[in-house]
């Protein structure tokens, strides 16, 4: 299936607060629109459909026209037209079932339940198991089900700690939601692929766990939605409760050449804007409500990541917002009485050649190739003759100094803007360095360059007598696990990272671990081994990989596996596991880097900054590897934290608002692991494994999704006897600072505000405080409002508003490799 792409809207962006903008309109069925204070649009809608043309045929025609005039751009169509098209894909497609049946061994297909939830099996050819219609309809859910055994948090979600439930997220019974969908399928309650896919998508999304993800193809493959007007939430003076504005108004105001005063937003589609935004934010992936609020808006750090960030915010169609149908239009009502009506759009993510109906869409994009369907046993024969290609990339530190929108010229930056270094300028700031880390990487070609940028920035800061460091992890949704460890070790080389984790203990994991551990005892643990050997020997499934909670080797797989009972249900988990950072095969799990302080980087022994002279700044998006780094910095090194933004109140907020799980496993990785025992059969034969949980795995769930992962590891804090996953611990930041209009357009204003608070005795905290003055800081002063820097150039922001995403970087690689990614 074609890859997913981040949306961008090529139409010019509106600069007025009294016009109606959007893609070509569709003259199909129109729902009632909310009351608008806007006068009639100055431009007449263009008819794009007719009485005899279905919605998918209209999309096909518009895409063809768009592509002929703009062949390099991604087509957009009216959101309503896209929504009608995707909803025309029927849920029950017998014709698709016949095409699958032709190339299947029917008995095996029925046994493994590989046929899609609505495809027919010729029962005359499978007397061994006469699969009934209800079995077939739920086959996709049955395919997903064994992968859920790896998810570590389901029981905690249903019965979380009281503080988490009151401050972060109410209890969520995933199994009740899952069973409800299952029964609706069995009862024939769905009429379209999209209706089923949306409920399935939401059952995972409502967990607000960025590692617990299933993207059905019917929801995420064909269209993504957006609005052409991003929003921003800012406090005019840094102390008053923030209000929401159109970002274009705040940007224009920053240039100082507009004839009007930006007015705050008060309604969206006739509803109170705060209430509307709070409700819409719940469609996001983050767990913390203040982080969800922030992610609705245009944030410089997210924009700096280009297509790998959440763009102009979830309201505008970035991140998870792109999967939510926004209606045909959105009406923004402002305090000054003006209104703006936006015609919402959909980005067409796949070719529409030859598509004239929902049935065509189904046959083209929702019917897996029969040759691709298989279970763990059949896939074992394929894995035995293939291996992952090694990287030959020579990616190095970028010499480019092109800044992201709103950022100053960097001292150094990684070519894809995954990290960069800066020195602040101006009286009182000249001893302060900034390390911007909006990502922890996720592609092997960027790993060494990312580490090099961190090392270079730190070394240059020390060489130029910078005594204080701001680490900005805004927008950091994670990346390679050991990059988080490496940055920590560059800053605190004398501290042994704790970082205890655990897996959920279940039959499939146990069988895989037994087989891999046996295999690993037959081959050398060496970088000289071939790639396939290194791949498996270095995995967590080998008990010789990792250490126990006391940083001692495990003696057997049984010792590593456990199981041990914890949690509200309780549930079974493995023994606590810690990374062995001096392991010769560490590079197999790090994308090729050696963690600082070990092996060929053992010369890094000097601490560059005192802990009290380091501050970490967050926008709430910190997740996965970012939370690992944050936990090490806060709990072991005692570094202080500042959280930005948040909902319109003055309560303390969390710094880390994303998933705090420490590893995600894609379904494809789990399936490969499940195939290993079938491939090698050291301890049992394939017939035995087919009677176990391993016999339940197949790839239908993978083929019918664009992204499918589970949270495979919990992070556990040192000394926690009851082993509550970090995911369910509430922790307020040391200080909360509101965004101001200047901070919304100039990242230097953010860093100087943080520097004032952390190092200069000028507090901007609206909640919390820094109890210690820090080295060289002896007083607390009243905060003063900071302006944008003198050399600020906001023109690239308009490119982002036009395109929906920043593209002024040297290429972006999306996705990861086989090394440990979180």
Description:
- Residues 26-35 have a biased composition (Polar residues).
- This is CPAF-like PDZ domain-containing protein.
- Pfam families: PDZ_CPAF_rel (PF23658).
- Residues 36-48, 387-401 have a biased composition (Low complexity).
- The chain has 822 residues and is an alpha+beta fold.
- The chain contains 30 helices and 26 strands.
- Strand 17 and strand 18 form a beta hairpin.
- The chain is globular.
- The two termini are 24 Å apart.
Global Rg: 27 Å
Tally of helical runs: 30
- The CATH topology of the domain at 412-499 and 599-660 and 731-803 corresponds to 2-enoyl-CoA Hydratase, Chain A, domain 1
The CATH C-level class name of the domain at 412-499 and 599-660 and 731-803:
Alpha Beta
The separation of the N and C termini measures 24 Å
What portion of residues is helical? 25-40%
Key attributes of the depicted protein:
five-stranded mixed sheet; eight-stranded mixed sheet; globular; CPAF-like PDZ domain-containing protein; 2-enoyl-CoA Hydratase, Chain A, domain 1; alpha+beta; disordered N terminus; disordered C terminus; single chain; 822 residues
């Amino acid at each position: 299936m074609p890859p997913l792409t981040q949306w961008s809207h090529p139409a010019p962006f509106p600069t007025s607060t009294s016009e109606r903008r959007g893609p070509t309109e569709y003259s199909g069925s129109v729902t009632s629109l909310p009351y608008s204070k806007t006068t009639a649009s100055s431009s007449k809608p263009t008819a794009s459909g007719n009485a005899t043309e279905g919605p998918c045929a209209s999309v096909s025609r518009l895409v063809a026209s768009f592509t002929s005039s703009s062949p390099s751009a991604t087509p957009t169509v009216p959101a309503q037209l896209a929504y009608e098209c995707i909803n025309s894909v029927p849920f029950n497609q017998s014709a698709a079932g016949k095409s699958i049946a032709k190339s299947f061994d029917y008995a095996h297909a029925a046994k493994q339940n590989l046929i899609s939830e609505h495809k027919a099996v010729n029962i005359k050819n499978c007397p061994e198991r006469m699969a009934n219609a209800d079995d077939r309809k739920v086959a996709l859910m049955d395919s997903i089900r064994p992968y859920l055994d790896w998810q570590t948090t389901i029981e905690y979600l249903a019965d979380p700690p009281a503080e988490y439930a009151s401050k972060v997220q109410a209890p969520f019974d995933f199994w009740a939601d899952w069973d409800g969908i299952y029964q609706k399928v069995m009862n024939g309650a769905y009429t379209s692929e999209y209706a089923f896919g949306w409920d399935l998508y939401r059952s995972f999304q409502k967990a607000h766990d960025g590692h617990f993800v299933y993207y059905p193809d019917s929801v995420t493959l064909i269209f993504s939605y957006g609005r052409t007007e991003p929003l921003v939430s800012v406090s005019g003076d840094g102390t008053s409760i923030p209000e929401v504005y159109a970002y274009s108004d705040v940007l224009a105001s920053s240039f100082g050449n507009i004839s009007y005063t930006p007015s705050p937003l008060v309604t969206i589609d006739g509803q109170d804007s705060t209430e509307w935004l709070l409700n819409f934010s719940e469609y996001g992936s983050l767990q913390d409500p203040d982080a969800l609020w922030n992610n609705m808006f245009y944030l410089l750090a997210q924009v700096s990541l280009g297509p790998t960030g959440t763009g102009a915010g979830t309201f505008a169609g970035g991140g998870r917002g792109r999967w939510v149908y926004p209606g045909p239009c959105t009406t923004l009502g402002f305090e000054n009485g003006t209104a703006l009506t936006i015609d919402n759009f959909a980005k067409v993510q796949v070719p529409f050649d030859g598509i004239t109906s929902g049935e065509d869409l189904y046959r083209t994009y929702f019917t897996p190739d029969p040759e691709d369907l298989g279970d763990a046993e059949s896939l074992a024969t394929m894995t035995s003759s293939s291996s992952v290609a090694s990287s030959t990339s020579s990616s190095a530190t970028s010499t480019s100094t092109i800044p992201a929108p709103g950022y100053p010229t960097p001292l150094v930056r990684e070519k894809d803007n995954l990290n960069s270094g800066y020195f602040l300028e101006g009286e009182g700031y000249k001893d302060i360095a900034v390390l911007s880390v909006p990502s922890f990487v996720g592609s092997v070609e960027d790993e060494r360059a990312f580490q090099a940028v961190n090392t270079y920035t730190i070394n240059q800061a020390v060489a130029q007598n910078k005594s204080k460091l701001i680490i900005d992890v805004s927008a950091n949704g994670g990346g390679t696990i050991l990059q988080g460890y490496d940055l920590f070790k560059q800053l605190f080389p004398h501290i042994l990272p704790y970082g205890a984790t655990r897996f959920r203990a279940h039959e499939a994991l146990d069988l895989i671990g037994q087989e891999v551990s046996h295999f690993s005892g037959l081959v050398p643990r060496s970088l000289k081994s071939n790639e396939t050997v290194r791949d498996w020997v270095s995995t967590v499934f080998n008990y010789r990989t990792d250490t126990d909670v006391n940083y001692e080797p495990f003696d057997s797989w049984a010792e590593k596996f456990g199981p041990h009972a914890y949690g509200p249900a309780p549930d079974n988990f493995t023994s606590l596991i810690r990374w062995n950072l001096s392991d010769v095969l560490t590079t197999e799990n790090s994308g090729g880097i050696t963690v600082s302080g070990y092996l060929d980087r053992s010369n890094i022994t000097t601490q560059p900054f005192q802990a009290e002279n380091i501050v970490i700044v967050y926008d709430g998006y910190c997740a996965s590897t970012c939370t690992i780094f944050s936990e090490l910095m806060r709990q072991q090194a005692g570094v202080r934290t500042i959280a930005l933004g948040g909902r319109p109140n003055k309560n303390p907020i969390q710094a880390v608002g994303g998933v705090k799980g420490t590893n995600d496993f894609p379904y494809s990785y789990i399936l490969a692991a499940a195939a290993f025992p079938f491939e090698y059969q050291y301890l049992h034969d394939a017939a035995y494994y087919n009677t176990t949980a391993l016999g339940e795995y197949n790839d239908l769930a993978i083929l019918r999704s664009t992204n499918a992962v589970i949270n495979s590891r919990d992070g556990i804090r040192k000394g926690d006897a009851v082993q509550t996953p970090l995911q369910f611990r509430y922790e307020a930041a040391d200080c909360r600072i509101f965004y101001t209009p200047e901070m919304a357009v100039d990242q230097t204003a953010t860093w100087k505000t943080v520097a004032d608070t952390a190092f200069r005795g000028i507090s901007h905290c609206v909640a919390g405080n820094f109890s210690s003055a820090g080295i060289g800081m002896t007083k607390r002063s009243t905060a003063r409002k900071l302006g944008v820097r003198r050399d600020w150039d906001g023109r690239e922001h308009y490119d982002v508003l036009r395109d929906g995403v920043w593209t002024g970087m040297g290429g972006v690689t999306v996705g990861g490799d086989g090394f440990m990614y979180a």
